[in-house]
Amino acid sequence: MNSQDLIFKTKNTWCPGCSNFGIDAAFRSAVAELIEEGMLKENFVVLSGIGCHAKISDYLNLNSFYALHGRPIPAATGIKLANPNLKVIVFEGDGDAYNEGIEHLIHAAKKNTDITVIVHDNRLFALTTGQYTGTSFKGFAGRSTPQGSVEEPFNPIELMLADKASFVARSYALKANHLKETLKKAIKHQGFSFVDVLQPCISYLNNTDFYNQKIYELGPEYDCTNLDLAYQKAREWDYSQNALKIPIGAFYCKPKLGYEKAILQGLTSKPSSIQNILSEKI
Amino acid sequence: MDDLSILIGGAAGDGIKQAGNMIAKLFSRVGKSVFVYEDYQSLIKGGHNFAIIRASNKPIAIHKDKIDILIALNQDTLEKHKGDLVIFDSGSCKYDKGIGIDMSAIAKSNNLPLIVRNVVALGALGKCLGIDFEYVQNVIKSCLKTKTEENIKVSKQGFDLAKSQIKFVIKKANNKPLLSGNEAIALGAVKAGLDFYISYPMTPASSILHFLADHADKLGIKTIHPENEIAAALMAEGGAYAGKRTMVGTSGGGFALMVEALSFAGMAELPVTFVLSQRFSPSTGVPTYTGQGDLNFALNAGHGEFPRIVAAPGDADQAFNLSGELLNLSWQFQIPTILISDKHLSESTFSADIDEKKIKINMPKMWNKTGEYKRYAITSDGISPLAFPGDKDAVIKTTSYEHDEYGIAVEDAASIKKMMDKRLLKQKSILKELKKKKLVKVFGKKNSKIAIIGWGSILGAGKETAEELGIKFIQPLYLEPFPIWQIEKELKGVKKLIDIEMNSTGQLAKLLKANGIECNEIVLKYDGRPFSQDELKGRISKIL
Fold this sequence. Notes:
- By secondary structure, chain A is of the alpha/beta class.
- Chain A has helices spanning 20-36, 56-59, 72-82, 94-100, 102-111, 156-162, 176-188, 208-214, 227-234, 259-264, 275-280, and strands at 44-48, 63-66, 87-93, 116-121, 167-172, 193-198, 215-217, 246-253.
- In chain A, strands 2-1-3-4-6-5-8-7 form an eight-stranded mixed beta sheet, sandwiched between helices.
- Chain B is built from 18 helices and 21 strands.
- In chain B, the strands form three sheets. An eight-stranded mixed beta sheet of chain B has the order 6-5-4-1-3-2-14-7. In chain B, strands 9-8-10-11-13-12-19 form a seven-stranded mixed beta sheet, with helices on both faces. Chain B has a five-stranded mixed beta sheet with strand order 16-18-17-20-21, sandwiched between helices.
- The longest helix of chain B has 22 residues, at 413-434.
């Protein structure tokens, strides 16, 4: 399997030079390698929300479920419950994950559904031409907040740790290999996995230089099973403009039995008759 | 007596619902057809709760206001209701006539909580009607799985303290199960192959979730209670995409939250059945009381135009059949279907006459693996063959965007029109299929020049009113597609048409008018209470 084989015959309409190409390419490489390692192509299902990121559903030669804004996660849970053999991967924008559908993110992590959520975090709404989201910095002057947003951003890494997500990572759209390896780990992880992918938006918020200067990788010595350490690392950057340095990598990783397995335990076959239930009522 | 109405009342926490169920079972086991109306408030303890249990020798689906026997577990019940014969707990209420039994003292002397007064009352009622205690004892055994012997003992004390008062003909048990509308909805869907019932609790839909969760192991299904109604609808859609039969259930407020997902199901052609159990609304409304205010909502919910099927059963038998039919139709046509119930149908109990063989799993149109798979392939009936993820020969792409045959977003004029036409073609196929079915029920005097017309849970009151007044009652079971061709046939020779509804604007009457049928009179009720048999009959008699 070649990562080129995972491109669907669709005209791509992302802006030339968009960092979504980086995420798309890294994801295809990750999936191609996972297929080489034995996973079945037909068992992959990708979902997306609505926004620039979401077009990835149309671009991938994989089963896809192009959902509503903010709503792919519950659909992914439904798919995983219906067929636990499927590898279910959700793409969302920060507008989907941290604004419109944040309750689904929080509950999927709490449930520990064995799905992977990849957030294309450009920290603004792009397709609607530039408005602030949950991870936009204070003072961000978008079209709905021309004087600058008065809200502080929240830290999705800290949020997911507090929510008991069993795999919490951050990566960067412009670090192809790091992103590919992080996505592979996330997809292989048993339980809910979350990857916040920082990405510059070349049209509305090109913070490439900022990220290139601040980002560093958590090294091989980092112990991702230590929750206290994970919080400490997560708090090195609060998604403001005042970053000294921004760690990327898997902050926390602790495999855990998936929600769907717990739910489906003891599922019996369907009876040919409901007469015994009706008899109870006589 | 061949038609008897009992009202038992007390506070929340007095076991009124349980008493209602036991009395209903007692009547069923002596050969009567039973209907139970539950009236309770949105609170956990205190307040005023009552149940009306009607038993009859003929099939019934509605209660009467005229009460033959009033059973009072508190003073409130005596002040709010009247009955020809009164049985009361003399330990907690004062009344100068009737049969006073110190039920509180019986409970205390046996060191049992006050809730057992309900079985003391059951014993006393059995004696009043001349029913052998053995029947009472067996009902307690079947309904109370803990402290059974203690309950039987106090019930016998109540039985012994009462006197036989009413001549009541005891017949052979009819062996009809007592089912609430919600239980019938649940079982109908199960027979049509339900895999997952996904629901966020909301009265009066919650008991579908509770009943299925309780019986999941016996039925081979799973129930899911997600974070909210939006999640419920999307989970159901995800499950359907991956090949499992899913149903969601809620009341008006929850359905409002599901509306975006409903429109998605229309566009993406995802088969999901939505149960909308109406409460009195708008908004939070009156959660434990009934209404029929959501007909327009169910017919019109969702942005854009897409095919749907909407049906409204009126009793447990219809609820079972229509729930199963809608789940099957969802899969046959890959559309959202909506089953409308209301508090009155969902939470009332009926002597059900269910033929489980009527509902079978109808297989959907599946892909035969020839050529390249296209999820939205254009076909002669508008229905594209299905394949599910995990199929190595197919890439299955579904989307909320307007799309091409592969399921890829499109914006060009020709593609947009082509796919709208494809879905409109499904509408035609639906109509063709439904024209084979009887979508309208008729009761009473079939050749009467006067007809009443109503939908949903008004069935019980409408049917008996028509039978007793010698007029015709027309009940459309399906509301979308609106079976105007069958209604017109039934209206031949009818000179006066009266619309009956439990809402304030006559939504069915407006729907009829939009289809060219004018109602001569409109009889409405919108106080959260259903039309009883006597109330509707009285209102109709006045305008005949």
